[in-house]
Amino acid sequence: MKTTKNGLHLPMRVVSILTAALIAVGGLGMFAAPDASAATGTGIANLAYAQIGKVASSAKQTPSHFGDSNLAGHSNNNWCADFVKWVWQNSGVNVNGINGLASSVYTAAVNKTNGSVAHTASSYVPQPGDAIVFKTSANGSFAHVAIVYSSYSNGKIDIINGSSGKNNVDIQRNQNGRVGQTAEGMYIQSFVTPGGLTPAIQSRIAVISTSNVASIKEGGVGSAWSSLYSNAKQVVMDGNRIGVLTTSGNAYVKEGTLQASWTLVATSVKEMAINGNRIMVLWSSGTASIKEGSVGATWTTLMSNVKQLAITQNRIGLLTNAGQAYVKEGALSNGWVLEATAVSQLSLAGTRIGILCGNSASVKEGSMYATWTLVSTGVKQLAMSGNRIGILGGTSLSIKEGPINAVWTTVATGVSQFSLSGNRIGIVCGSTASIKEGPINAVWTKVATSVKNISLYTVS
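Given the sequence above, the corresponding structure tokens read:
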């Protein structure tokens, strides 16, 4: 790497973390900046990814297409900060205080110039759209800045760089992704989250301890825990909403980030459920109610003599004290369909309906009038998510994936409670909570001890 005569830095890169859809941007400098209120980390990462392979400028031409840094002596030198600034600015982010120096991305955050936040703790899990700031060594000079495109549960990240000793934007995959580590041959000094982003919805894991304290983590399986609520009986999650039911029967909901405020939505509650913009509660009287829309919307009574709630994208289900399983689809004003009798548990996932009758588990798929398929006997808990079905027989947990008649795979023994969501499976064995992510035969990761319940929400 090359240092300027001022002791300032070397060729610099910009790191970007890739996410789902790629944005095709026609020409550099031709991008129309969106409204700042719509800026997201994912959008920033996607815009950076769309620049891969694009050239900064013609030979010995300054400014580059990504900015007007007065440090750029020629086309392959010192435009990493220009690249980060260009991507952030064209995503609707405030870039005041960022100039042609890699250090300026960090100092603008520290000086609170543009609302960005600097993270220097090794526990911080970088997010797509963050800037990654490098030094030559722990006590060295600032060397480079880039954009995080992807962040993985194993601590690795993908980085999108500008000015990495070449004339075009590139991506470096599977790099170390924590402050204090080395990536791309440089020391990771910090990550900087741009200010004013619309919070991205992340996967979440919640546990309730044996002392009834609820904790939550979001993002990767290895991310840090945050305290959620004390005296918790149940935690439910979907989208950007989290619900907690306390041991005293108070139902609270928060919407947005983990730091959002709680709203008390009901008292004298013994169960709650959330999906999308719907919140369901089962009052201690046995009456089930639902609200749709804002957290402060009015409750609508659904049915009395209810003992269990179930909810999925377009369906709601109720199990009565008499063992009758009812499901309705679509609008709240639509009629109920009696799905089965002598039912002890009801589960919904997409177009699947699952029931336990005694210790026999059956599932139907598609129409609410489809035929039941017996999937197993000797079952005491049933759960479904996507194309996965899970059953707990005694203390042995088995999962099947794909069609209803797929083969069962035993994934754990000694299980007292489990949860399914997307490609994640959560279990409690004794008082230890563990997660596996990805294929059914993936390795378990222990995430907490002294736990009695685990719940999951996974972003598809």
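Residues 36-193 form a domain with the endopeptidase fold (from Nostoc punctiforme) fold (CATH 3.90.1720.10). Try to locate this feature in the token string yourself.
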